[in-house]
Design a protein that fits this description.
6 strands
């Protein structure tokens, strides 16, 4: 038994002693009741304390699980803000590479490709992945962001993706930027 249980039992015994001492005081008929209050037994007190302990223990276990889950989620998405700031830089690298490929300077192209690849691989190591979008894929409003619709060049492209204007990215399982696409009008 715990110290708290002894204390509660002692308090009950003291209360009983006080009632017996006050028995000499005259009782008026208004104060008399036919109900007899039973004092809780030691077993009932023990059972109540055990129930209280089990509930507190279960609540603490749930708290630990919840905070652990929140911490894992925080670590997974802690770099989300930084990644979203770096995405326009990746877009600029892609546009720059496309223009440099048009020129005839192969050394410049090789150098910029090395820097771009290193930058992309570093971000991939941190959990950033590109969402693959190809012309002819089905449009999914959960993943894609349709910026415009144009008449479909062929019947099989109606309601499907015709072009991807801006790449989309995921950080872990969470989409941090939806790919912006052009849809074929049905």
């Amino acid at each position: 038994m715990s110290k708290d249980q002894y204390t509660k039992e002692d308090e009950l015994k003291d209360a009983i002693d006080n009632v017996e001492m006050e028995g000499n005081v005259e009782e008026s008929p208004e104060n008399e009741t036919n109900e007899v209050k039973e004092e809780p037994t030691t077993e009932e007190l023990l059972k109540a304390e055990k129930d209280k302990y089990l509930r507190l223990f279960a609540e603490f276990e749930n708290y630990k699980k919840r905070t652990t889950k929140e911490r894992i989620e925080l670590f997974k998405t802690a770099s989300q803000e930084l990644m979203t700031v770096l995405l326009p830089i990746m877009d600029d690298f892609d546009r720059g590479l496309a223009e440099i490929k048009k020129s005839e300077d192969s050394e410049l192209l090789k150098g910029i490709e090395l820097i771009s690849n290193k930058f992309k691989s570093t971000l991939q190591q941190k959990g950033l992945t590109e969402i693959e979008v190809k012309a002819g894929d089905d449009f999914d409003s959960e993943i894609h962001d349709a910026i415009t619709q144009i008449p479909a060049p062929t019947d099989d492209l109606k309601g499907k993706i015709i072009d991807c204007v801006e790449k989309g990215y995921k950080l872990g399982d969470k989409i941090i930027r939806h790919p912006k696409v052009v849809m074929g009008q049905a």
